[in-house]
Amino acid sequence: MSRIANRFRGFLPVVVDVETGGFNPQTDALLELAVCIIEMDEDGWTRPGEVHMRHVEPFEGANIETAALEFNGIRPDHPLRPAVEERRALQELFLPVRQTLRATGCKRAVLVGHNAHFDLSFLNAAIARTSYKRNPFHPFSCFDTATMGGLAYGQTVLARAVQAAGLDWDKSQAHSAAYDTERTASLFCNIVNRWRHLEELEEAGHPYSA
Asked: What's the pTM?
């Protein structure tokens, strides 16, 4: 079994971010979906993998709130927007996740997100809507970087937690699924590696040293 499978009890952490047409996963459109598989080296240090993203066509009858589009800057009807239908987006983005599960010996993917249950609810709704049968994600377990950021840095807003972790934040790129996924992945790895560093210090006889 790989080190990452041992570290997270058989789970493979996969960062997910969605951009949507509102807050209701049953009625509001899924507009962007991005994933980033967390990698781990032989020494137990984590790093973000490649970010995969798809623009998603609103499902038939989907609601799209004007306020949501003003927030995320998405133009669903733009003629140059390379959107695909929901089922294709799921198939293409889940494929590398399933491949990594096999390669690492992990049992299931676990969604990592900032306020993760929001992203998980939209992901689960899209899976149910399209009757997708090969979902690699655990249906309800997740890792929430809002909670982790609050614990590690006293910050629960993504931008503030990222900056408190000493990472860059580009406001002009925020609220795109690809950028938020990459920054969330970096934050997650920063916190996991920080804990790994504390473990090494404790093993060396310096408990709780930063």
From this structure: 0.94
Dihedral sign (CA 187, 188, 191, 194): negative
Using CA atoms, how far apart are residues 98 and 67, in angstroms rounded to an integer? 35
CA-to-CA distance for 204 and 209, rounded, in angstroms? 10
Query: What is the rounded CA–CA span in Å between residue 114 and residue 180?
Result: 9
**Mean pLDDT estimate for the chain:** 95
Does residue 99 contact residue 136 with C-beta atoms inside 8 Å?
no
**Per-residue b or e along 191-203, where b marks 16 or more CB atoms closer than 10 Å to that residue's CB:** bbeeebeeeeeee
Of 55, 175, 197, 206, which residue is the catalytic one?
175
Structural contact between residues 163 and 169, judged by C-beta atoms closer than 8 angstroms: yes
What confidence tens digit (pLDDT) does each residue in 113-141 have? 999 999 999 999 999 999 999 999 999 99
Q: Is 117 part of the annotated catalytic residue set? A: no
